[in-house]
Amino acid sequence: MAKEFDVTVIGSGPGGYVAAIRAAQLGFKTAIIEKRKTLGGTCLNVGCIPSKALLDSSEEYYKAKHKLGDHGIDIGQVKLDLKKLLARKDKVVSEVTGGVDFLMKNNKIERFHGFGKLISSSEIEIKLESGNTEIIKSKKIIIATGSVPIDIPGFEIDGKQVVTSDDAINLEKVPEHLIVIGAGVIGLELGSVWRRLGSKVTVVELQSRLFGNTDKQMASLAQRILETQGFEFLFEHKVIGLEKKNGKVKVRIADSSAKESDVEGDVVLVAVGRRPFADNVGAEQIGIKFTSRKRIEVNPHTYETNIPGIYAIGDVIDGPMLAHKAEEEGIAVVETFAGQSGHVNYSAVPYIVYTWPEVAWVGLGEDELKDRGIQYKVGKSLFKSNARAKAMNEAEGQVKIIADKKTDKLLGVYIIGPRASDMIAEAAVAFEFGATAEDLARSFHAHPTLSEIIKEAAMAVDKWAIHGG
Fold first, then answer.
1. What is the band of 212 on the pLDDT scale with cuts at 50, 70, 90?
2. Beta-carbon neighbour count of residue 35 at 10 Å?
3. Which of 27, 49, 131, 280 is most buried, most CB within 10 Å of its CB?
């Protein structure tokens, strides 16, 4: 007899495992299916967590080489032990993925190690690691299978010279010249890691600037800062070919006028984005509808597909491919199972780029607001005006707050600076509660902290900043 469950989740990334835990908390008999030996999906195994471990390690290395002297700390010659640095990354990943495994056991969630495939609206066939198959039944099924890197035709991934982000977290030596194809979050973050460790980094990008249609002024500021760190950007260039020769990799590129040239390096990182991984999970075979962008089509309130009892969340549906977006959807969908009003406010989703300084934002930028014909007002405050930033010797960057010209309601908050990833949470909460710029301006912000820069920018919206806006 097939095992039966109330809720079964296919995929154990942030969206999947969070959905499973919430389902168990609400009293549902829950199962989770994962093809990897370790839980956590792309994010915990080869994405968010290992990349952040490398970013932190490379930041410490860079500080030791270039910044500690400013604090009166002389540590002599700084040497890089790449093997140890990578081992630390692996240890962090092991601890985090192990933590998710503990949570499954602690919440009495049954885990299946294998590849799950839908065979009906209530049945899943699992190809187990042993090669055998098992069929389970479930009243409700959540597809949370995430995404995979997008390939470029003609750029065959070999894991050594031509790599994806999965490989770029495990390079055995620091490349002399790293060519990054794509100026998105992944390319900039991993480019930052290897740049700090000594690589020359050239970024080839088809678009005309960083961060797509986000705020142009803040994107330009981020670009200038990265260029001062040694990044080389080739905007409005497309890649048209690749050649390996004598241990080098030559990338053929063409600019907007179709003029061709070559960029030669040691390693090419293909980071042009990710696509939903929903091809082989049986969705199409049982009749689940997909959008024109090859994402699973769901009811935007319940996350149910056109097949009753089957739901989808995270990277396989529309919206930003972000771990925290998937987590909120995972909680929302399960709460609707329990008769609660699960809800996700997509206008309050924070975006973060973990370069240094970090880049974070929530809401809309000036360009988007102009396109929509929305009148707005702007307040800015620089990190160099903040006492805590000066004490940290990290005074590069600014906060920009955009509010509705008539109602003062927050429309966009942009932060470029140290710990922007932590600072943006305040803005996300403010968006969730429909706050105004004045609400931020008149709220306590402890002194001395970096968060005071948000207060100053909010005050600057109506031109009453105290320390300079």
1. confident
2. 17
3. 49
Question: What mean pLDDT value characterizes the chain?
Answer: 97
pLDDT value for 130: 85
Q: Where are the alpha helices (DSSP H) in 341-465?
A: 366-371, 387-392, 420-432, 437-441, 452-461
Q: Is the peptide bond before 448 cis (omega within 30 degrees of 0)?
A: yes
| Residue entry with tokens 């933590």 | 99
pLDDT class of 164 with cuts at 50, 70, 90: very high
**What single DSSP character describes residue 257?**
T
CATH architecture of 162-272: 3-Layer(bba) Sandwich (3.50)
Question: How far is residue 165's CA from residue 190's CA, in Å, rounded to a whole number?
Answer: 8
pLDDT at 469: 55
CA–CA separation, 347 vs 344, rounded Å? 9
Identify whether 467 is a catalytic site residue.
Answer: no
Residue 152 clears pLDDT 80, i.e. is over it: yes
Residue 129: is its pLDDT beyond 90? Answer: no
Give the closest residue to 8 by CA, choosing from 149, 134, 122. Answer: 122
Classify residue 229 by its DSSP letter. T
pLDDT digit string, tens, across residues 394-441: 999 999 999 999 999 999 999 999 999 999 999 999 999 999 999 999
Choosing from 113, 177, 447, 467, which is the catalytic residue? 447
Closest to 320 in 3D by CA, of 361, 264, 378? 361
Top CATH class of 3-149+275-344 equals: alpha beta
pLDDT of 267 above 80? yes
Average pLDDT value for residue range 243-255: 96
Distance CA 422, CA 175 (A): 31
Q: Is 194 exposed, middle or buried (0-12, 13-18, 19+ CB in 10 A)?
A: buried
Asked if 170 contacts 86 with a C-beta cutoff of 8 angstroms, the reply is yes
Q: At what angle do helices 185-196 and 48-66 cross, to 10 degrees?
A: 40
d(CA 170, CA 399): 34
What's the pTM?
Answer: 0.96
Q: Where in the chain is the domain with CATH 3.50.50.60?
A: 3-149+275-344, 162-272
List Cβ neighbours of 259 (8 Å cut-off, separation of 6 or more).
Answer: none
Look up the CATH superfamily of 348-461: FAD/NAD-linked reductase, C-terminal dimerisation domain (3.30.390.30)
